[in-house]
Amino acid sequence: MNFLTLVSRSKKRKERHETPASSGEASWAQRDEDSTPIQKGQNHGVRLLHQPSVPTNTLVDIVFVHGLTGNAYSTWYNEQHALHWPSKLLKDDIPEARIFTFGYDADVASFWGGASQNRLANHAENMLGDLAGEGEETVSKDDRSIIFVVHSLGGLVTEKALQLSENNAETHLRQIEACTIGILFLGTPHSGSGFAPFAKSVAQALKIAGKRVNTDILDALKQDSQTLLDVEDWFGHWLRRRSEKGKAVDITSLLEEKELPIVGKVVTEASTRIFGYPMYGINENHMNMTKFTSAKDPGYKTVTRELRRWIKKLQDQKGRDRAIH
């Protein structure tokens, strides 16, 4: 589906999200034992898609976080190939992982509009609380490691959640930051110079979709850019603190290589790059860079290569720790 088709369906999409999925649509991700079924309708909060058949064999939790205008279903789903790759492919390629999604209201108008101008922090708080709640299911939760796979603004929601986790008064909430070992960013802006074009692209998308882009929403986008700048400032310092503690966080950024019709590139190369960490291209536009076609898709191979690399490092470290003790 191209972007023009996608945005033309935006009004219908909102209606679908507010209405429970029909029996014909019911389970879009095959339900594994002890997993939570999710549908094409609302899927807010943390949902478990898959866990190893022997839960005690879980080495890492992988959490998928969507961006603006997306949701826990559509962001990671290729409609043409009827493939939701986190639930259909990843469980075989990363058998040591529990796989989760986190969903939130990512409609642009409601995200930044209305009385609340600080929805980023609200979503981050909800995400942190939900993740900590899921952690209670883990047999040895203190040993659990977390990897986030995030798209667009979902990366900034994740960063804000980690900021709220660090130095939190509650032990179970601090655990989320302490257990994070890697973040895979897909089309996430990281620099102040990238936030203004990002907001402009969002506004253009709204206009194409036939939505009224009023000054209140645009003002909120502009005002919230300071919140985004503050989060990015914290994020850079946090990465350095973790490295200095000998607990470095793995980071990989993936860049959209194609433009959206009319809108162009939503996130530029300069805004995507995090200095000192790898960045690779995905030969798709901002909307489709998360919708892989098969296990042979070059984008999927890039994602799984990075995830396996990080997990191999984790396995090696745990092996060294066991040898010492």
Give a verbal description of the structure.
This protein is an alpha/beta fold and 325 residues long. It has a single domain (44-324), classed as 3-Layer(aba) Sandwich (Rossmann fold), CATH 3.40.50.1820. It has helices at 3-8, 10-18, 85-88, 90-93, 108-112, 119-135, 153-165, 171-179, 192-208, 215-244, 269-272, 298-324; strands spanning 45-50, 60-65, 77-78, 83-84, 97-103, 145-151, 180-186, 250-256, 279-282. It is globular, with a radius of gyration of 19 Å. The termini are far apart. The model is unreliable at 1-37 and 114-118 (pLDDT under 50).
Write the layout of secondary structure elements.
Elements: H1 3-8, H2 10-18, E1 45-50, E2 60-65, E3 77-78, E4 83-84, H3 85-88, H4 90-93, E5 97-103, H5 108-112, H6 119-135, E6 145-151, H7 153-165, H8 171-179, E7 180-186, H9 192-208, H10 215-244, E8 250-256, H11 269-272, E9 279-282, H12 298-324
Parallel strand pairs: 2-5, 2-6, 6-7, 7-8, 8-9
Antiparallel strand pairs: 1-5, 3-4
Helix pairs in contact: 6-7, 6-8, 7-8, 7-10, 9-10
